[in-house]
Amino acid sequence: MLTRLREIVEKVASAPRLNEALDILVTDVCQAMETEVCSVYLADNDRRCYYLMATRGLKKPRGRTVALAFDEGLVGLVGRLAEPINLADAQKHPSFKYIPAVKEDRFRAFLGVPIIQRRQLLGVLVVQ
């Protein structure tokens, strides 16, 4: 698994643009973890919210921005705690927030991991 992680990091680092790097990340994490969904929410500190920037497995609505305030949902909780959260049934957690636009209601399990660089939270990686 460490070898696979290293390969993913190298591919992401060599991507010419951020959106390509994020697409590589979500696709390769899904494959490596044999899961249906991987998404990246990036933090916007000025607007105090996370934007869904890349996903594999969720519906990303065209022409609409999917955003969660820093204090909303499990993504917000991962960001506030700055530590991973692993849940077998995310919908039972009090911080769960359903987002109809992404059609995530059929996925129960949730693994959220903060993306941190130099002690600054950049976003949240979610595997479902």
Description:
The chain has a single domain, classed as GAF domain (Beta-Lactamase, 2-Layer Sandwich). Helix 1 runs antiparallel to helix 2. A six-stranded antiparallel sheet has the order 3-2-1-6-5-4. It contains three helices and six strands. With 128 residues, the chain is an alpha+beta fold. It is globular. InterPro entries: GAF, GAF-like_dom_sf. This is Phosphoenolpyruvate-protein phosphotransferase PtsP. GO terms for molecular function: transferase activity.
Features:
128 residues, alpha+beta, pyruvate, Beta-Lactamase, GAF, 3 helices, 6 strands, globular
List the helices and strands and how they pair.
Elements: H1 2-14, H2 18-33, E1 38-44, E2 49-56, E3 67-69, H3 73-81, E4 85-87, E5 110-117, E6 120-127
Antiparallel strand pairs: 1-2, 1-6, 2-3, 4-5, 5-6
Helix pairs in contact: 1-2
InterPro entries: GAF (IPR003018), GAF-like_dom_sf (IPR029016)
Keywords: Pyruvate, Transferase
Domain GAF: 18-127
